[in-house]
Amino acid sequence: MTSTAFYPIGTPGQAWGAAERAQWLASQRRQRSYADDVLSRIDGLRERFDVQQYGELDYAPERFPLYAIRSRGWRDDLPTVLVTGGVHGYETSGVHGALQFVDRHAADYEGRVNLLVAPCVSPWAYERIHRWNPGALDPNRSFREGSPAPESAALMALVAPLLGRFLVHIDLHETTDSDESEFRPALAARDGKPFEPGEIPDGFYLVDDTDNPQPAFQQAVIAAVERVTHIAPADARGEIIGSPVVAHGVIHYPMRKLGLCAGITGARYTTTTEVYPDSPRATPEQCNAAQAAAVCAAIDFALAV
């Protein structure tokens, strides 16, 4: 079914131009603080971990430094694990789950893996509780050569010297009710396409890579998270967000083809987590804990193989 509801910016059937993008940008409001919520927590980790600034976003009059947290005992003979959060800035548990993992669990892997954690890839969007950057671009469709999204380009530059050494990359996301009420309608309007309503799954699920499926790895992560929060069931069509469910709580996307963050390392084990924070059956604390549990399970599985 195609909805006749119309997003309030643009003309139906016409992709946005500069004027519509400027109108959209003018409507965005800062709702929380990257400095207070994220940078202060990173500062609190400096005694135990190395912190690297890997870029800065210049969105005049604002500037946002980009930081990654690294294992202090980095060793070239160890495999490397990348954890990313906040690629979509509004997906709160991705950011705070990554920070919780570092604070509570990262020490368990000292001397076993090198950890590289970028907890908030899109700080401007974090503050606006939005999916896009100021150019109305989705960073998680922009991880490709010559990326137009500086958030994506900066992260790719960070990992480039380490390519070939990654064992695991886990990218922490959420699927929210606002995906259906705001972000997908905005996407349809931006691209001049009709909005086709979908269904938000109630629960946690994973996105595996179509071109590098790792079913046992995905199920190990699902099993760990299931001890923290519930797993999303398939809908009446046997799908989650329009993709066939291939195993309990798992769907497939072609990571590199779509320009997704989880496709940037070439790691053997990759996944994108999707937490549902709007569920009446989950608290913010559970959502953060589910993300941290997913990271631990991903590393544990990879090291045990």
Commentary on this structure:
This protein is α/β, with parallel strands linked by helices. It has a single domain, classed as Zn peptidases (Aminopeptidase, 3-Layer(aba) Sandwich). Helices cover about 30% and strands about 20% of the residues. The protein contains 8 helices and 10 strands. It has helices spanning about 20-25, 35-45, 90-105, 125-130, 150-160, 175-190, 215-225, 285-305, and strands spanning about 50-60, 60-70, 80-85, 115-120, 165-175, 205-210, 240, 245, 250-255, 270-275. The strands form 2 sheets. An 8-stranded mixed β-sheet has the order 1-2-4-3-5-10-6-9, with helices on both faces. A hairpin with a 2-residue loop joins strand 1 and strand 2 (about 60-70). Helix 3 (about 90-105) packs across helix 8. It is globular, with a radius of gyration of 19 Å. The relative contact order is 0.16. The model has no long low-confidence stretch (mean pLDDT about 95).
Strand order of the largest sheet: 1-2-4-3-5-10-6-9
Helix content: 25-40%
Structural class: alpha/beta
Q: N-to-C terminal Cα separation, in Å?
A: 45 Å
Largest sheet: 8 strands, mixed
Indicate how many domains the architecture comprises.
1
Number of helices: 8
The CATH topology is what? Aminopeptidase
Order of helices and strands: HHEEEHEHHEHEHEEEEH
| Mean of residue pLDDT values | 97
Which architecture per CATH? Answer: 3-Layer(aba) Sandwich
Q: Could you name the ranges where pLDDT drops below 50 across 5 or more consecutive residues?
A: none
* Global Rg: 19 Å
Shape: globular
CATH superfamily assignment? Zn peptidases
Count of beta strands: 10
Tell me what portion of residues adopts beta-strand conformation. 15-25%
CATH class: Alpha Beta
